[in-house]
Amino acid sequence: MAQVQHVLNIAIDPLKPVTEICAVIQAIVPYHQGQEEAILLGVHEACEARLNQLRKGVEKHG
Question: What is the pTM (predicted TM-score) of this model?
Answer without folding.
Answer: 0.77
